[in-house]
Amino acid sequence: MAGLLGGGGGGLRGHGELPLNADINVTSLVDVAFVLLIIFMITAPIMQGGVDVRLPRAEARPLEPKSGLVVTLDREGHIFMDQTPLSYADFRATFPAFVRTKRPTGVYLRADGRVPYADVVQVLAAIRAAGVNDVGLVAEPEVVKP
Predict the structure, then answer these.
(1) How confident is the model at residue 37 (pLDDT cuts 50, 70, 90)?
(2) Which own/partner pairs from 76-82 qualify as long-range (CB within 8 Å, at least 24 positions apart)?
(3) Domains in the chain, please, with CATH?
Protein backbone atom coordinates (compact mmCIF):
# COMPACT_ATOMS: atom_id res chain seq x y z
CA MET A 1 0.00 0.00 0.00
CA ALA A 2 2.84 2.33 0.64
CA GLY A 3 3.66 2.23 -3.07
CA LEU A 4 0.21 3.43 -3.97
CA LEU A 5 0.22 6.35 -1.58
CA GLY A 6 3.54 7.67 -2.81
CA GLY A 7 5.47 6.96 0.37
CA GLY A 8 8.14 4.72 -1.21
CA GLY A 9 8.66 5.59 -4.93
CA GLY A 10 12.36 6.41 -4.84
CA GLY A 11 12.05 10.17 -4.37
CA LEU A 12 9.24 10.68 -6.84
CA ARG A 13 6.48 13.05 -5.83
CA GLY A 14 3.84 11.09 -7.57
CA HIS A 15 3.30 8.56 -10.24
CA GLY A 16 5.01 9.41 -13.57
CA GLU A 17 6.61 12.75 -12.52
CA LEU A 18 10.29 13.60 -12.88
CA PRO A 19 12.49 14.12 -9.81
CA LEU A 20 13.07 17.67 -8.54
CA ASN A 21 16.16 19.44 -9.95
CA ALA A 22 17.86 21.81 -7.47
CA ASP A 23 20.42 23.22 -9.99
CA ILE A 24 20.44 26.88 -10.98
CA ASN A 25 19.61 27.57 -14.60
CA VAL A 26 22.77 29.41 -15.71
CA THR A 27 21.71 29.98 -19.32
CA SER A 28 19.46 32.92 -18.55
CA LEU A 29 22.07 34.40 -16.22
CA VAL A 30 24.70 34.30 -18.99
CA ASP A 31 22.24 35.86 -21.45
CA VAL A 32 21.55 38.77 -19.10
CA ALA A 33 25.28 39.25 -18.46
CA PHE A 34 26.01 39.42 -22.20
CA VAL A 35 23.21 41.93 -22.78
CA LEU A 36 24.55 44.15 -19.99
CA LEU A 37 28.07 43.84 -21.38
CA ILE A 38 26.91 44.92 -24.82
CA ILE A 39 24.99 47.87 -23.37
CA PHE A 40 28.05 49.05 -21.41
CA MET A 41 30.33 48.63 -24.44
CA ILE A 42 28.04 50.81 -26.54
CA THR A 43 27.41 53.51 -23.94
CA ALA A 44 30.94 53.82 -22.46
CA PRO A 45 32.42 55.85 -25.35
CA ILE A 46 29.39 58.14 -25.34
CA MET A 47 29.71 58.84 -21.62
CA GLN A 48 33.36 59.90 -21.86
CA GLY A 49 33.76 63.64 -21.72
CA GLY A 50 36.14 65.69 -23.75
CA VAL A 51 36.30 68.11 -26.60
CA ASP A 52 36.20 67.01 -30.20
CA VAL A 53 39.12 68.80 -31.82
CA ARG A 54 40.01 68.97 -35.47
CA LEU A 55 43.53 70.30 -35.74
CA PRO A 56 43.99 73.06 -38.31
CA ARG A 57 45.98 72.66 -41.50
CA ALA A 58 47.82 75.55 -43.01
CA GLU A 59 49.98 76.20 -45.98
CA ALA A 60 53.27 77.41 -44.63
CA ARG A 61 56.62 78.20 -46.09
CA PRO A 62 58.83 75.09 -45.73
CA LEU A 63 61.51 75.52 -43.09
CA GLU A 64 64.99 74.35 -44.03
CA PRO A 65 66.87 73.15 -40.92
CA LYS A 66 70.35 74.09 -42.12
CA SER A 67 71.77 76.54 -39.64
CA GLY A 68 70.82 74.86 -36.37
CA LEU A 69 70.82 71.60 -34.52
CA VAL A 70 68.34 68.93 -35.63
CA VAL A 71 66.79 66.70 -32.97
CA THR A 72 64.80 63.78 -34.40
CA LEU A 73 62.30 61.53 -32.62
CA ASP A 74 61.52 58.40 -34.63
CA ARG A 75 58.50 56.08 -34.51
CA GLU A 76 59.98 53.82 -31.82
CA GLY A 77 60.76 56.79 -29.58
CA HIS A 78 64.51 56.87 -30.21
CA ILE A 79 66.08 60.32 -30.06
CA PHE A 80 68.74 61.38 -32.57
CA MET A 81 70.85 64.50 -32.11
CA ASP A 82 71.92 65.27 -35.67
CA GLN A 83 72.65 61.60 -36.59
CA THR A 84 73.73 60.29 -33.17
CA PRO A 85 71.20 57.97 -31.45
CA LEU A 86 70.54 58.65 -27.77
CA SER A 87 68.20 57.38 -25.08
CA TYR A 88 65.93 59.90 -23.35
CA ALA A 89 68.09 59.86 -20.19
CA ASP A 90 71.27 60.40 -22.21
CA PHE A 91 69.63 63.19 -24.19
CA ARG A 92 68.58 65.00 -21.00
CA ALA A 93 72.09 64.64 -19.57
CA THR A 94 74.12 65.65 -22.63
CA PHE A 95 71.94 68.23 -24.38
CA PRO A 96 72.54 71.15 -21.96
CA ALA A 97 76.33 70.70 -22.21
CA PHE A 98 76.10 70.46 -26.00
CA VAL A 99 74.11 73.72 -26.13
CA ARG A 100 76.65 75.50 -23.89
CA THR A 101 79.61 74.45 -26.04
CA LYS A 102 78.18 74.65 -29.59
CA ARG A 103 75.71 77.52 -29.10
CA PRO A 104 73.42 76.60 -32.04
CA THR A 105 71.41 79.41 -33.63
CA GLY A 106 68.27 77.32 -33.40
CA VAL A 107 67.06 73.83 -32.60
CA TYR A 108 64.73 72.00 -34.99
CA LEU A 109 62.62 69.16 -33.62
CA ARG A 110 61.57 66.56 -36.17
CA ALA A 111 59.08 64.02 -34.78
CA ASP A 112 57.36 61.14 -36.55
CA GLY A 113 53.61 61.69 -36.81
CA ARG A 114 52.91 58.36 -35.10
CA VAL A 115 54.93 59.19 -31.97
CA PRO A 116 52.76 59.77 -28.90
CA TYR A 117 52.25 63.44 -28.08
CA ALA A 118 53.64 62.93 -24.55
CA ASP A 119 57.01 61.83 -25.95
CA VAL A 120 57.25 64.92 -28.15
CA VAL A 121 56.39 67.16 -25.19
CA GLN A 122 59.05 65.49 -23.01
CA VAL A 123 61.75 66.07 -25.62
CA LEU A 124 60.56 69.65 -26.15
CA ALA A 125 60.65 70.24 -22.38
CA ALA A 126 64.22 68.91 -22.19
CA ILE A 127 65.23 71.27 -24.99
CA ARG A 128 63.59 74.22 -23.26
CA ALA A 129 65.14 73.25 -19.90
CA ALA A 130 68.57 73.51 -21.51
CA GLY A 131 67.91 77.21 -22.13
CA VAL A 132 66.94 77.03 -25.80
CA ASN A 133 63.95 79.26 -26.50
CA ASP A 134 64.13 79.15 -30.29
CA VAL A 135 62.73 75.72 -31.11
CA GLY A 136 61.23 75.01 -34.51
CA LEU A 137 58.93 72.09 -35.19
CA VAL A 138 59.72 70.69 -38.62
CA ALA A 139 56.85 69.30 -40.71
CA GLU A 140 56.32 68.17 -44.26
CA PRO A 141 54.74 70.79 -46.52
CA GLU A 142 51.06 70.23 -47.12
CA VAL A 143 50.12 68.98 -50.56
CA VAL A 144 47.07 70.82 -51.88
CA LYS A 145 44.96 68.71 -54.23
CA PRO A 146 43.02 70.62 -56.90
Answers:
(1) very high
(2) 77/115, 77/116, 77/119, 79/123
(3) 69-138 (3.30.420.270)
